[in-house]
Amino acid sequence: xxxxxxxxxxxxxxxxxxxxxxxxxxxxxxxxxxxxxxxxxxxxxxxxxxxxxxxxxxxxxxxxxxxxxxxxxxxxxxxxxxxxxxxxxxxxxxxxxxxxxxxxxxxxxxxxxxxxxxxxxxxxxxxxxxxxxxxxxxxxxxxxxxxxxxxxxxxxxxxxxxxxxxxxxxxxxxxxxxxxxxxxxxxxxxxxxxxxxxxxxxxxxxxxxxxxxxxxxxxxxxxxxxxxxxxxxxxxxxxxxxxxxxxxxxxxxxxxxxxxxxxxxxxxxxxxxxxxxxxxxxxxxxxxxxxxxxxxxxxxxxxxxxxxxxxxxxxxx
Length: 317
What we know:
Elements: H1 19-31, E1 38-41, E2 50-59, E3 63-72, E4 79-84, H2 96-100, E5 104-109, H3 139-155, E6 160-170, H4 172-183, E7 190-194, H5 201-207, H6 214-222, H7 227-237, E8 250-255, H8 263-272, E9 278-283, H9 296-308
Parallel strand pairs: 4-5, 4-6, 6-7, 7-8, 8-9
Antiparallel strand pairs: 1-2, 2-3, 3-5
Helix pairs in contact: 3-4
C-alpha cells in the first residue's frame, strides 16, 4: 500500500510457496560448478603499500566471472575481508582504498559487467527485464549467485580471516549486500546497504518512473497480459523475501528524495531484516546517494571497522 509517509508503506510482495526450495536448488546447482579461483598480479595498479590482482572464478551456469582483489603489501596474521558489490550501471571499482585501510578487499563484477560479459550481456538498461516472464531463466538468478560466489572466493583465500568478512554496496550493491548476508547468514560478519534496489520491485515500478524500474513499466506497456507472470518472477527474486534470514549486524540508509529507488521500499525491507542488531538511516535532503554526501560515508567506515578490525597498513594486526 502506498501512503504519503514512506515509513508507513506496506509492500505488496508475496513470498512464493516454493521460494525456499527454488533458492536451495539454485545454490545446489551453483555448488556443482567448481569455483576455480584465479588471481593474476597487476603490477601497474599496485603500489608500495598495496598489491592488486585481477580475479577470476566460475559461477552458476559455468560462466566465468571477474573481479578486482587488493590487499596490503605488508601485514602480519590474518586480514579481515571486505566484499564490495556494484550498482546497476556502475562498473566494479578498484578496491585500493579498502586495502589501504587494512582490508583484503574484493570488488565483484557479476555477469554482464565489464570482463564478465562475454557470455551474458543484456545491457543496462536490459538486465532487470531479461527473461522477466521466465522465472527459471531470469537474469538475476545467475547474477545473484555470482555475488554469493564472490563472497566464497574471498572467504577461501589463505590470508583472509573467514570470521571477519563484511559486505557493502549501494543501490544494486545494497540489494546484493542484503542478498549475500541472507544466503550466507552464518558467515557474513556485518553489512552496509545504501538505497537498496530490487526490493518491492512491482511497487517500485509504480512509485517511480526512473530507470532501472522503468524497464518493468516499459515491458508491461507492450505486454500487459504478462503482468501476473512478471510479478511471479519478481516476487521469487525480490530481496524483500530473503532478508528475514539475516543474522549479522546491518545498517541501511535511504535518501528521502530518491527518485531511482523509492525510500518506501527501504523502510519496508529494513523492517523484514531478521537481525536484531540493525540500524536505519534516512536523509531528508538526499536522493539516490542515500546520505553519502551528507556524512554517511564516515558512518559506514566506522561501522565496518568496528566489526572487522582492519590492520594498520604496514604494521601488525
